[in-house]
Fold this sequence. Notes:
The chain has 14 helices and no strands. The chain has helices at residues 2-15, 17-20, 23-40, 58-88, 94-130, 133-160, 162-170, 177-190, 194-209, 214-237, 243-263, 275-297, 303-324, 328-342. By secondary structure, the chain is mostly helical. The chain folds into 2 domains: 1-36; 90-342, no CATH class.
Amino acid sequence: TTSAYNIGIIIGALLLTPFLxxxxxxxxxxxxxxxxxxxxxxxxxxxxxRPVLDLKHPGVRRVLRLYAPVALGVAFSTVxxxxxxxxxxxxxxxxxxxxxxxxxxxxxLGLVAAAVAFAVLPTLSRQSSAGDQQGFSATFGMGMxxxxxxxxxxxxxxxxxxxPIVAAIFQWGRFxxxxxxxxxxxxxxxxxxxxxxAIDQVLLFAIYAHKRTLMPNLVQGVAVxxxxxxxxxxxxxxxxxxGALVIGNSAQWIGHLLLLAWLSRDLVRLRGLRLGExxxxxxxxxxxxxxxxxxxxxxxRAPLAQLMLGGAAGAAAYFTVCLLLRVEALDFFVGxxxxxxxx
Length: 343
């Protein structure tokens, strides 16, 4: 549903801007929200719900106990966003460049990380409740491998084709070459944190499956401090400009993942899952992607043509190398897709 929301915003920006001007983004938000609702309607087919207001029900109390730490985490995140926006407002064009780059980053996060995390959560919850540690580890491990399979090419593809991507999607009307340059710069500086943010979502849901909500949200508070220390430190001692803020965001995502993984090491065990092997194979395939995408993009001049040629060549190179390396997650992912298509 996160991807549907982002797609709605993109549809509004691309198709409705000639008719609505700046209000096209508002319409895009409404389209995205509507798509989120429509996608969830099939799951309610045949279900009969009766609204009952019973605040004394044990389930309500349990949900409130679990949600209270989440509200704290949201408060920490809000503080971080407000600080980020305040600092960005001091640099001309920084806020919009960071917002556009964030939109590009959120697309693979929603399409890959959030989708996988939500898909494995029910199974992880059942296995945790049943005390099936072996099954829990297997499900969690495969979820992590699928995220790595998909987020690594997204990261390296965005890096290799950052210029054509920004120009093809955003460089229209008053959005000129300077704005495109700022956005591409922000995108490149966000990318080191993208894999960490994606992996973090699956790890976070694995912890939630154990009904532990306090620790992850306290970690969010520490992560905001990491952002503040990194961004303010770079602003004080370097001339990176708004790039310091973007690096701070990447440091926040990486710090959140590392701290969360360390604190949950007894709850969610990573040993024996062969994640290092999956990462190495993904990096090798991503190297082939970068080479193929860059070479193919040189065959065209128009940004859209560069994006299409580079994207197709990069994807072909990536999945070819994955097949040659016998990447486990690829077999699993293809198998799941085929089963879905046969239904």
